[in-house]
Amino acid sequence: MGGNHPRRAPAAPGRADEPAGIEITGLTKRYLTPKGETFTAIKDVTLSVEPGQFCSIVGPTGCGKSTTLAQVSGLERPSAGSVKVGSHIVDGITSGVSYMFQADALFPWKSVLNNVMMGPILLGTPKREATELAMDWLRRVGLAGFEDRYPHQLSGGMRKRVAMAAALINNPRILLMDEPFGALDVQTKAIMQNELLKLWEELRPSVLFITHDLDEAVALSDRVVIMTTSPGSVKDIFDIDLPRPRGNVQEIRHEKRFLELEGQIWDSLKDEVTRAYARTAGAAA
Amino acid sequence: MVEQPTDLQAAGRRKARRRTTAVWAGRAALAIIVVGGWQWFTEAGWVDKFFFGQPSMIWDSLVKLFTEGTAFGSIWDNLWVTVQEAFFGFLLGTFVGIVLGILLGSNKYLSSVIGPYIRIVNSIPRIVLGSIFIVAFGLGVFPKILLAAVLVFFVVFFNAFQGVREVDQNLVANVRVLGASPFQVAVHVTIPSAMTWIIASLHTAFGFAIIGALVAEVLGAQKGVGLIISQAQGTFDPNTVFACMVIIAIVTLVAEFLISLLEHSLLKWRPPNRSEAQAI
Fold it and tell me: Using an 8 Å Cβ cutoff, are A112 and A162 in contact?
């Protein structure tokens, strides 16, 4: 237990820690390939997320979006530059962070309830309290009555709800989402986006959200960051001035301001996507 | 779950029942052909029963083993010794295999250093170690347990090792971000995830434990089914050898059944096997 890992106070139903901003300065990450060559995944990434802000990162495939998230979470150490969460420079696992992946990172051998309980349990919350908290969260994501099921018995959308409850139960200051809805069908995706917005508006963590879907980025975010092809760096930053609460993401899509913003962002992204595509096509030929 | 008209349902049930009957009829026929053929061929003299035994005589030997016992005490005593050796060898080999497999599987440096040596040790004929163990530790129970454990170890070890390597890295990242210590990662992610692989190996592992115990007994013992076998070999008595094989086969089947029970209770979270639903 413990070791060199930071401990956090158990998440109370109320506000445990205040939302913290993320400040990324000159972040560079190089990897060593098995052959001993270095590969630069991201280079000089500088961006900031205000406390409680919803920020999306959009960019061509393989431009280092996930790498950026890994540095923020503290799972990896930057090769140069720094990440600041709140007033602390990240060195080791950042406290108050939750992750959500495209593949649902649920424990297949744990029931839905036990999956959601993991967060508080790892913080040392007594089992009874953790159970109550998890039951409450299952209710909030509309899965009351499913607590004894195993993940394989649920649909893709339901599994996403479980993952969402598991990510939010600790009341994180920072929510890192790596294409969380990438594998869902269009209808389920829209439902989950609405659900996420609703929960986010209740808790207001700072969010870094990776996506390929421009619609999704504009509909959900306060800020959209465009990254260049690899080595990834920040190309453009757009502030989305659509009013909050956004309401239904399917309806907002048709508003004039939405389309305008999406057009601007696409103009910026287009070149990068074309360049990334030309590179992979060239490599294949 | 599946709603359907009753006549369709009845037809489906009839089909399933017919399939079950056919399977059991086939099984019985196969047994009769093999055992009956054996009896017939040896009786007719086409095959020498002096070397290959005969089912009816094997049965006689079995009855004799259980009623008159052996030169080394009752068959139950001997069987109990062998089962104990196999069981403790199985436990020891499984335990060491799981611990080392998980340790090496989760540590890249250790696995790179030790990996080649494990492969070398795996490629030597380990059964021969039995001779060394008997020379070193005498005719008692301990060298048998050791040989059984050595055979079991490699099966379990390779599965545990592979199981740890197959762990979903997203899951590991997820719990680490939530603040899990390395110990908690092992308890909540690595070990349960590797369990599928480890349990799959236990079925073969128990067979190996029995083989280890028997071979070590044949090499030198004061009690045990292996000793009865080696004595029967010395007196040109194939029927007793076959009888011992039957007894051991039953023991292994029982163990297999118990391991299956364990498997079901530990892996009840797994989705049901798709092949269990048959196309009609």
Answer: yes
